[in-house]
Amino acid sequence: MLYFHGLDKGVTYTEKRICKSQLCAEFLGSMFLVMASISSMILLVDVLDAPIGIAVFANAIAVAFVLCALIEIFRPISGAHFNPVVTMVMLLEGRVSALKASLFVLLQFLGGIVGVALSRLMFLNEVGTLLAVSDNIRNEYIFFGEILGTFILVLTILLLIKVGSNKISIIVGFLVGGQLLSTSSTMFANPQVTVASMLTDTTSGIRPIDGLVFIAMQLIGALLAYVVYKFIFTNKTYKTEEK
Fold it and tell me: Which of 3, 15, 27, 181 is deepest in the core (most CB within 10 A)?
């Protein structure tokens, strides 16, 4: 068995096993989320020659369904973040340690890169290479869409956790699918998905310079969501509602 020697001093064997399970969950969840996003667009556009509007609609359905399933599968293990900005706000909330958050983010990015490579491998005859830098332009007003998309996603997750909802997977899946169809950016709202999308020259890609701005907008949207969440659930307000 492998251990994180020097990183988990004083923790038990069980805690080390849980830590490894959580990292595996974040890697696999991120990988399959990216595969759903990338593969569905390759299949519809490059293989089936579907119109872009149909492809985007099918992509939204695929991502919503897969994300819902992934949250149900991996939430009991790692919390099913699959998204560095979600991990960031969980760190701000004190729900994960700085060490765990750092490892989660690392595995999320690695999972996303592996996911895009596997997606392209499945359709290698159509795409030609495992990885290819995108030149798809997504700029100007589209950046604002990333702020809004990330804001509603992060705020929704925080509120659902706060109220103890048992329908997080369904609500988040529906929200992401709907926002894919109703934001100008088609709602990446996820830095690891954005980086993965920089590495595919298919319709779902984004050129690196725009991708970096997307990530900045995602961080802004997530932080704004956290500020609004803390405003809603100030200690004074929350205690008043409980009486």
Answer: 27
For the entire predicted model, the pTM comes to 0.89
Q: Which domains does the chain have, with CATH numbers?
A: 13-234 (1.20.1080.10)
185: which DSSP letter? Answer: T
